[in-house]
Amino acid sequence: MLKHTPFHDFHVSAGGRMVDFAGWEMPIMYRSIVDEHNHTRNSGSIFDVSHMGRLQISGKDAIPFLQHVFTRDVEKMKPGQCRYGMICNEAGGILDDVIVSRDKKHWLMVVNAGNREKINIHFHNVRKEKDFDFDLADNTESTAMIALQGPKVIERVGGHLEAVQNLKRYEFVSDTFMMLVKYTVSRTGYTGEDGVEVILPAKMAPMAMKALAGRFDRPEATLKPAGLGARDTLRLEAGMPLYGHELSENIDPISAGLSWAVSFDKPFIGSEALKKIAEAGPAQKLVGLELEGRRIARQGTIVKGPHGEGVVTSGTMSPTLQKSIAMAYVPAADAAEGTSISVDLKGELVPAKVVKLPFYKRQ
Amino acid sequence: MSVPTDRKYLKSHEWHKLDGDVVVIGITQFAADELTDVTYVSLPKVGTKLSANSRFGEIESVKATSDLYSGVSGEVVAVNDDLNNNPGTVNTDPFEAGWMIKVKPSNPTELNALLDAEPYKASSGH
């Protein structure tokens, strides 16, 4: 039985094509992936991301615990700040990539839907083993989460919530609306556009959607719903990794190009292994590829560079650039921009070259 | 969803329309909608010999890649080159401008074995 988010009725009434995503019934698209993609780049979109896990951590040892499991230094974070980073295993393999937010009295961690159970178990084990004293509450199903993304979002949402206009990137506010509705708004996202992500009580979600999506069916509507299909093409153009594609327990943050989200100033699970990888240099690196022609290299496609084979992790026909793009792991010696790589599409070798990530950067 | 009654279908969603002495082949609106935005259509060269129910090409969308099948045997006499530059035509007009190949059938009675519109609709659940 698939889980439903609080927006399920909305998706169905808006014509969403529903699919199984990590055990949740989610809209892959409403109108067309390309149309929803372009509307996000040009105006704004509303994404239901309630399937993502929301864990609240509080109590005496919240900080030592987070320092122990998270790749970044949380001690330096101020209330109202968010940080992207990884949860690793001892070998430095990525268990999940997450966003940690520091609130006044607690911490919030947003984890991937497909990793939520695994991370909960991992944290319970760590707590037991290290005898940490903290509370861990999984608020995923009592809350809803929407991402509002696009160049016109801040202006549109700022009309409802003034505090949003002053938020810097990777900052959030949490407040109570009309003395009843507790909400959190962060200036974060997964599309390469400006925008916010909003967490609110599950019960209030349909009402909030009505206020935001309002009459989205008008052609001139500023905000329209967009599904997971567009979310994937948007994040790929923006060069953002997706767990299960670019990231896995067999991949470390250094190879994935995420050294910037790893702090070696403090020990954490995996830090010793990652130090060694960083010092020796990773054997393979994540790169962007631009293919000739219009064919798409999908996950698992083998690529060949001057120094050996690699593998594609994600690929699509970029709606914004109108080019076939992909991300792939290649031998570190082949990761330089401009390197010629051939992509094996069912026996046909298609020429490609290594390009700088992200493929797309907003103006 | 409308399925024209002037042609024959494969369960794999290709339509076949007899036009004079050639059979025009494309995919249905249902299939195009399922694929979502088509990004690339790989078609055979003119002169290629096809056998019935064999693969003649490949269609790619943002979402997936699928094989294309011909329900008749024969020789490819024309391909829709417009799809190279405008693959999206398969989404917007799959039954007319989005046609893919024209085949000179070696055995036109093979068409009779294909599905009519109603059984096709029933088989694909739309």
Secondary-structure map:
The complex is a heterodimer of chains A (363) and B (126).
Chain A: H1 8-13, E1 17-21, E2 24-29, H2 33-42, E3 45-48, E4 53-58, H3 62-69, E5 81-88, E6 94-102, E7 107-111, H4 116-130, E8 135-138, E9 143-149, H5 153-158, E10 172-177, E11 181-186, E12 195-201, H6 205-213, E13 224-225, H7 228-237, H8 271-280, E14 284-291, E15 302-305, E16 308-318, E17 323-331, E18 340-345, E19 348-355
Parallel strand pairs in A: 3-13
Antiparallel strand pairs in A: 1-2, 3-9, 4-7, 4-8, 5-6, 6-7, 9-12, 10-11, 11-12, 14-17, 14-19, 15-16, 15-18, 16-17, 18-19
Chain B: E1 8-9, E2 14-19, E3 22-27, H1 29-35, E4 38-42, E5 49-50, E6 54-61, E7 65-70, E8 74-79, H2 82-85, H3 89-92, E9 101-105, H4 117-124
What does this entry show, briefly?
The complex is a heterodimer of chains A (363) and B (126). Chain A has 363 residues and is of the alpha+beta class. Chain A has eight helices and 19 strands.
